[in-house]
Write a structure and sequence with these properties.
The protein is 27% helix and 22% strand. It starts with a strand and ends with a helix. By secondary structure, it is an alpha/beta fold. A hairpin with a 4-residue loop joins β14 (285-289) and β15. It contains eleven helices and 19 strands. The chain has two domains: 2-141 and 306-377, FAD/NAD(P)-binding domain, CATH 3.50.50.60; 146-209 and 254-302, FAD/NAD(P)-binding domain.
Amino acid sequence: MIDTQLLVIGAGPYALSTAALARERGIHTAILGSPMGFWRTNMPTGMLLRSGPDWHLDGAATHTLEAYLAERGIEAREVDPIPIGFFLEYADWFRKAKGVEVREELVDTLTKENGRFEASLASGERIRADVVVSAPGIRTYANVPDWASSLPAGYAAHTCDLVRFDDMADARVLIIGGRQSAYEWAALIKEHGAARIDIVHRHEIPRFERVSWKFVDAHVEQTVSMPGYWRNLPKSEQDAIAKRFWEVGRLTLEYWLTPRLEWAGIKRWPGTEVVEVTQSGDDEVHVRLSDSTRLTADRVVFASGYRADLGKVSYLAGLLAEIELSNGFPVLDNAFQTSVEGLYITGFSATQDFGPFFGFVKGAPAAATLIVRDLLSRN
């Protein structure tokens, strides 16, 4: 039996950021998970990030990505855009610099009794903790349309489960979705020799140009300085911010995709959606779009994003009845604490109460700051 003050479940950006800051502030912390596991396993090696060098993991603002660049003598322009592999190198450096040791263990169940939490691990070991921070990876929330279940096994995948493209040579590929992942996966698939790619999405064709995410900074800073910042905004302001976020992050895609797409062999179907799916005997997938267009594909890729559903986080099953939910999201207080005292949930799962920024690395240091500040106030 291991005993600790704080148990962090997960080892992605939000978990690492929180564990590092808690440890620096003198809180005895254990962290379980695969370090940056989703990034290493569910993102392709050729992926490029949309963020800049000012997005980092450190709530203390010391071991930042810019500090890592400086230590290695690298100019920011040399990693613009930032390759995923480079950010993973930074995350490893960050963990080492902070002395954060991650136990690569899976949690089977999490319970609470007599005011303390107990995590039962897949190995059979148990950990008791005063407080738990849960940072579920977004792979748990992969969203696909209802008709996905009608497709033959092995012929369809969400982008998070499709990170190698060697078997795409000469294939006819149907991509559902029109955001960054849809078009970046189209580029990667095209580079691996696909015969044809059809991209189907409900909104108009996005722009491809350099964008700035700097407008996010003020909102994240105000989240730290003004308790309940996002939830206390008038609905009209929330909608205006969400619209701008959509325009910058969804309707405008990265300029560096354009030369990689080479539109020959790629057809876009904006303003449409799939309304009928059939399968022929030779395992071809036939779809009819809402504009009556018919397409045939050998493979289907769902670039359809993620949808929160805390019920899919298996280790929380024993506590789920006590966690107040809204639209699949946990209802959180101003410091990310759930209705179960001592249980905090951070990352994408917190975006309903804290705004869309907290689905991105940018929000990790701010979330860590609020959680650790609250933990220290408990003593």
